[in-house]
């Protein structure tokens, strides 16, 4: 009896001690016993408890807070045999590892077709991917984008830590301009979508075709070497899990725009599809060279001028609401033994933006706010876009997949600016017009294959073709003026008269035509070899590959200005719709003719041959530490050609090979906590436009931009340190510190001029960029309140500092295009922050989703710090873009299983877009911009975009599905 009581006491005491012991954890991996593929979503449960988890995209799972003792683990997955693992011992404070495999069910499930799809578009999948990447990275999933209701990649990516957006389409990472980013779509480098800068226009990619976006902050051997801010990889949707079809329609209202009156100009062609008519093209009858054209008589040149359509007259317009439509189709079927699938997305949008822009230039003498020119711009733009995504996937076997992906975007932008104001320094009233149509096309198509050779070797290849086209057919500009206060014979103010200089200049009356076409051919091959046992938790791997690219760009531009013949005042004071009619462009005394203001250098051809090879490998130090060493070598041959006096001349021929080593080290403090270190050597090449000695006039800023043929490739050294914690599969806390050193960084430079603004591109001596980034993603799955269980908090902040040292001399062109050395003493600041670099970036969001009721809502916040918009000098102070606090609200409700209604309110605060001039040159913009004291600063450009309201109805035909 005594022994029985003693045994009972000891057993009870053991149970009590076990209950109060620190819990342990179980982790492991689950794979298919035959194919060795990860079983994504397999369920793991401890019998008799509520402790369970689902396997992630690599088949890995973690069970936390497991009581110490022996347990039975049950693993299940649809169409696979359930597996029970008894007597799994968990010790206090320790982790037990289980790596196991499941067998498919037998004949009882013969009719079940198993198609394993690797989910990559969920928040958990993206967090898991980032956690397992060797380089330091952040990202955003399609699921989060859908919650935010962001319309395109530009709006979505600003939710990522360290990322901000310029002009609603260009991405800045860590405060560095878009020239320091590399953009890849489905692992192929995208061509620049812009003429004047190296930049990819992210508004070309609609959000509903995106699977995920990953932003790499550190380099690796596998990634392109041309970056300093980040590498942005956009992955489009691949394959559906079943057949589906859904459609969505959106109507949008913008304050200050919708139902307001505006003036616009007419264009032939299907502008609503982003297309233009034949009459907007420059006739092939025009001589190619200005020298051949301008020797013709006035009458002969006027006969060419009459070939231009007289489309100068403006029309009044009441602005309609914005419209957007999207259609999504997904199909899966079998072709023999081949599993085939297709995803097709078609989207269309027609949107409007009206703004009243206050624009001023100052004399910049001793007294602040001495106005030289002051204007009010009535700006109206209508943008159309049609986009198509068409992806095919063919799964021939578990070891061979073939994909064909095509992305097409056609965008048209019709912009009309009516500028009124005064040129105070000359005593003139001004009335100027800009009538512009821009057409852009971007096409990428890729064929890729994934191969597995046994359990140890993988190989993939991608061949791609890309095309970027940009047309500005018939950009019409005209400047009227009259003496301020002058009166006519009738006692009324005098009529405005068109200014027609003898030699055409881009700032005066005329018509501008430009055409850019860029073709890119790519081929990449990547391999991976696992060393040792592939079922090891962290097996060693070697990666290798090559990348080749051929880029051809053709750019041509022509500008034709109108000239008076004798006294043409009777013609030049007519309304804008009749001045340039055929009867006035007659080549006779008192009439008008035209001259060609183009130069041979306004057209160029660019050729770039780029080849790279890399090798990297992992070295594991036990289960805690992994070191990845990489080496990439890049060869680049950049050529720029132009036809001058009927002879093709080579303006640039830069051949360069650069070795790019990289190191990435990860130390696992715990299963949920990592410490990372990264070093990489990268570069930054000049773009064709930055090299081409072509002068482009920006009407909105009244500035000229010209290239510099002497630009060199910049070198960048990058160091990153990151601590990251993953409390649960969809939670994340991280802190990252970074430092970058630049040699020969490429920056914009304001040329010294007597009047006006003229920019070029130069190599500075050196620069530094460093800062810290914080990110948190917090859920409340364990909360007792249902409200908090459905709540997720997301926030990130970046604090950055930069300094650029121009040196004592820089090399660049003068106003005539001649290359010279500029002594910077007394000309400009030799040290300043880097252009476009923000000292801080903050994003925050509160997301709520209740699956039971179908309600979702979120509140999102974004702000960036004051950053240099236009570099200044001693005569013209630097212009800064000022911070804007942006607040968005999105609400959606699912009705049954087929219909979802969404309400979005963007930019609720509607703070002004503001560009201010640092008159006192202290690097800060004060709040008092009207004072005339020496400490005052000056607003150069200011306007409001208007808050934006959208209502969307999305309908799924048939059964509603979630598409990976």
Automatic annotation (TrEMBL):
**Any Pfam family the entry gives:** CarbopepD_reg_2
Top-level taxon in the UniProt lineage:
Bacteria
Q: Which residues form the signal peptide?
A: 1-21
Every copy of the TonB-dependent receptor plug domain together lies at 136-230
Where is this protein localized, as stated in its record? Cell outer membrane
InterPro entries tied to this protein:
Beta-barrel_TonB, Beta-barrel_TonB_sf, CarboxyPept-like_regulatory, Plug_dom, Plug_dom_sf
Start and end residues of each TonB-dependent receptor-like beta-barrel domain:
445-906
Keyword list, A-Z: Cell outer membrane, Membrane, Receptor, Signal, TonB box
State the family it belongs to: Belongs to the TonB-dependent receptor family.
Q: What is this protein called?
A: TonB-dependent receptor
Q: Could you read off the lineage of the organism from its UniProt record?
A: Bacteria, Pseudomonadati, Bacteroidota, Cytophagia, Cytophagales
């Amino acid at each position: 009896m005594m022994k029985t009581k003693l045994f009972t006491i000891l057993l009870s005491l053991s149970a009590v001690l076990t209950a109060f012991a620190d819990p342990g954890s179980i982790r492991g991996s689950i794979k298919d016993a035959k194919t060795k593929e990860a079983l994504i979503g397999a369920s793991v449960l401890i019998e008799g408890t509520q402790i369970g988890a689902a396997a992630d995209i690599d088949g890995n799972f973690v069970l936390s807070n497991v009581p110490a003792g022996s347990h039975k683990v049950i693993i299940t997955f649809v169409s696979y045999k359930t597996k029970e693992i008894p007597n799994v011992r968990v010790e206090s404070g320790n982790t037990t590892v289980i790596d196991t495999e499941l067998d498919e069910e037998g004949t009882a499930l013969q009719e079940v077709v198993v198609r394993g799809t690797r989910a990559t578009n969920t928040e958990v999948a993206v967090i898991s991917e980032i956690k397992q990447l060797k380089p330091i990275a952040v990202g955003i999933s399609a699921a989060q984008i859908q919650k935010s209701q962001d319309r395109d990649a530009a709006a979505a990516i600003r939710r990522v830590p360290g990322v901000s957006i310029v002009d609603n389409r260009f991405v800045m990472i860590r405060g560095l301009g878009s020239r320091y980013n590399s953009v890849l779509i489905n692992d192929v480098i995208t061509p620049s979508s812009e003429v004047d800068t190296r930049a990819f226009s992210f508004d070309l990619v609609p959000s509903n075709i995106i699977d995920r976006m990953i932003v790499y902050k550190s380099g690796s051997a596998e990634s392109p070497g041309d970056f300093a801010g980040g590498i942005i990889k956009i992955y489009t949707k691949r394959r559906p899990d079943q057949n589906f079809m859904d459609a969505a329609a959106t109507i949008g209202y913008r304050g200050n725009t919708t139902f307001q009156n505006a003036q616009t100009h007419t264009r032939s062609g299907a502008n609503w599809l982003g297309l233009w008519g034949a009459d907007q093209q420059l006739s092939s009858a025009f001589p190619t060279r200005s020298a051949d054209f301008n020797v013709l008589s006035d009458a002969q040149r006027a006969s060419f001028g009459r070939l231009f359509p007289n489309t100068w007259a403006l029309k009044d317009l009441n602005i309609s609401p914005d419209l957007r439509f999207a259609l999504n189709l997904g199909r899966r079927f079998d072709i023999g033994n081949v599993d085939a699938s297709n995803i097709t997305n078609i989207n269309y949008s027609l949107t409007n933006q009206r703004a009243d822009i206050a624009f001023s230039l100052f004399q910049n003498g001793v007294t602040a706010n001495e106005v030289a020119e002051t204007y009010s711009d009535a700006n109206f733009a209508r943008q159309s876009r049609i986009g198509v995504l068409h992806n095919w996937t063919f799964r021939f076997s578990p070891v061979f997949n073939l994909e064909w992906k095509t992305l097409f975007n056609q965008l048209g932008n019709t912009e009309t600016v009516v500028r009124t104001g005064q040129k105070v320094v000359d005593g003139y009233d001004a009335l100027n017009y800009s009538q512009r149509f821009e057409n852009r096309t971007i096409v990428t198509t890729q064929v890729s294959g994934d191969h597995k050779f046994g359990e140890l070797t993988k190989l993939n290849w991608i061949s791609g073709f890309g095309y970027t086209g940009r047309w500005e057919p018939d950009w019409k500009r005209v400047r009227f003026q009259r003496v301020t206060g002058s009166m006519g014979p009738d006692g009324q103010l005098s009529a405005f008269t068109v200014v027609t200089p003898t030699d055409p200049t881009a700032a005066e009356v005329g018509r501008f035509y430009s055409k850019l076409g860029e073709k890119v051919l790519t081929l990449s091959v990547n391999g991976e070899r696992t060393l040792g046992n592939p079922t090891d938790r962290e097996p060693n791997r070697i990666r290798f590959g090559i990348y080749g690219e051929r880029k051809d760009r053709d750019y041509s531009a022509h500008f034709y200005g109108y000239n008076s013949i004798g006294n043409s005042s009777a013609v030049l004071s007519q309304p804008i719709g009749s001045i340039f009619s055929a009867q006035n462009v007659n080549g006779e005394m008192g009439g008008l003719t035209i001259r060609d203001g183009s130069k041979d250098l306004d057209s160029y051809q660019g050729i770039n041959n780029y080849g790279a090879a890399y090798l990297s490998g992992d070295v594991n130090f036990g289960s805690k530490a992994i070191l990845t060493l990489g080496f990439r070598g890049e060869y680049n041959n950049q050529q720029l050609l132009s036809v001058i006096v009927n002879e093709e001349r080579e303006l640039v021929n830069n051949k360069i090979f650069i070795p790019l080593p990289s190191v990435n080290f990860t130390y696992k403090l715990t299963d949920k906590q990592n410490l990372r270190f990264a070093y990489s050597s990268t570069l930054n090449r000049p773009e064709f436009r930055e090299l081409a000695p072509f002068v482009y006039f920006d009407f909105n800023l009244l500035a000229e931009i010209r290239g510099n043929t002497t630009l060199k490739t910049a070198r960048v050294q990058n160091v990153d340190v990151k601590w990251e914690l993953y409390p649960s599969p969809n939670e994340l806390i991280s802190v990252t510190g970074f430092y970058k050193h630049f040699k020969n960084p490429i920056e914009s430079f304001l040329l010294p001029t007597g009047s006006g603004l003229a920019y070029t591109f130069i190599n500075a001596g050196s620069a530094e960029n460093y800062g810290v980034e914080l990110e948190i993603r917090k859920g409340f799955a364990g909360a007792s309140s249902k409200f908090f269980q459905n709540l997720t908090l997301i926030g990130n902040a970046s604090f950055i500092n930069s300094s650029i040292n121009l040196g004592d001399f820089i090399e660049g062109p003068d106003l005539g295009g001649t290359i010279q050395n500029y002594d910077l003493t007394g000309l400009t600041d030799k040290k300043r922050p880097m252009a476009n670099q923000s000292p801080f970036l903050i994003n925050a969001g509160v997301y709520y989703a209740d699956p039971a009721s179908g309600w979702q809502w979120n509140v999102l916040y974004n702000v960036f710090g004051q950053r240099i918009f236009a570099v200044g000098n001693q005569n013209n102070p630097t212009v800064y873009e000022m911070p804007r606090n942006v607040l968005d609200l999105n609400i959606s409700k699912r009705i049954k299983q087929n219909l979802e209604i969404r309400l979005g309110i963007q930019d609720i605060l509607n703070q002004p877009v503001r560009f201010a001039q640092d008159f006192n040159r202290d690097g800060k913009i004060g709040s008092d911009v009207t004072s005339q004291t020496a400490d005052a600063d000056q607003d150069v450009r200011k306007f409001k975009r208007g808050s934006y309201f959208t209502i969307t109805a999305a309908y799924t035909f048939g059964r509603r599905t979630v598409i990976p």
